[in-house]
Amino acid sequence: MKRVFSGVQPSGNLTIGNYLGALKQFVELQNESEALYCVVDLHAITVPQDPDDLRRRSREIAKLYLACGVDPNKATVFIQSHVKEHAELGWLLQCSSYMGELNRMTQFKDKSEGKQSVQVGLYTYPVLMAADILLYDATHVPVGDDQKQHIELTRDIAARFNGRFGETFVIPEPQIQEFGARIMALDEPTKKMSKSAENEGARIAILEDPSVFKKKIMRAVTDTENEIRFDEENKPGVSNLLTIYSLFAGESVDTLVARYQGQGYGNLKKDLVEVMTDKLGAIQQRYNELSDTDELDKILAASAERARTIAERTVNRVKDAMGL
Ligand code: ADP
Ligand code: NA
């Protein structure tokens, strides 16, 4: 049986990068596997958070999962901190992980660079992520390209633990799309689009108003060639727009390139805004329709309960193996 686990941090407004790279896959995978989708609030606190904002955002993200099409009858949707075993297994695995391997994590290097003081949790974050995945015996982890290194580490930690203490963990596979695993920033298409980046013009939030994202698309950095061609190396801006278009419209890049032959970037951008207005509009409408408090609380509580049943079994197995 295929079991899928993935999570998103409540560290900002989810972007179309999060949607196309992760959430869209979540929806597809819930039909063919047992799926658990988590809002990883314990990861968000690796950088300072306002408590009220964090609480509100965690629930908003759970709601957004549902608006994007995650079905609580098919998938387990919960908030990480509601299942205490994440923290517990996180510690147990920290004692099976090495500073040498954490020192190689590029996300830590990026996020800590130039900072005067950095929380210890930001450094050990990948071990908590390993715990999140291993807790549920996940076989597949749908993520964007930026998480590849963390999944590799998870595999290393699991295999080493199994070698030392006996078969305990399932070794998970990253499930990274061949296409769309890395949506780039609109203002600087050599960088990944991120919900926590400084510049607002770099990203588009899933819940953003069309009038706002229209401006961002129309201003998106391209090149002076004015030729529509897919070439990520030499034409990262145009290629990024084609990728976004293709994923939202469900049409291949080749089809789009053929359609826009001889046309300028303006037409491509204008049509992309229309496609996005349509697709994001539907998500936004569902999001606004979702009854806010009681219903969501019920779903989250039932899901956390289901998750906890699996998580407890795993932690018991791990503690037994370690002599605890
Ligand atoms: P962010 O990096 O935007 O803060 P997270 O770290 O919470 O987001 O990642 C949530 C999921 O979204 C992960 O699976 C991640 O790989 C994916 N993701 C994030 N940014 C992008 C992007 N620009 N393109 C594709 N997938 C992305
Ligand atoms: Na990320």
TrEMBL record:
Its EC number is 6.1.1.2. Gene3D superfamilies: HUPs, Tyrosyl-Transfer RNA Synthetase. It is found in: Cytoplasm. The keyword Phosphoprotein does not apply. Its main location: cytoplasm. A motif ('KMSKS' region) lies at residues 192-196. It is an enzyme of class 6 (ligase). Homodimer. This is Tryptophan--tRNA ligase. It comes from Tumebacillus algifaecis. The gene is trpS.
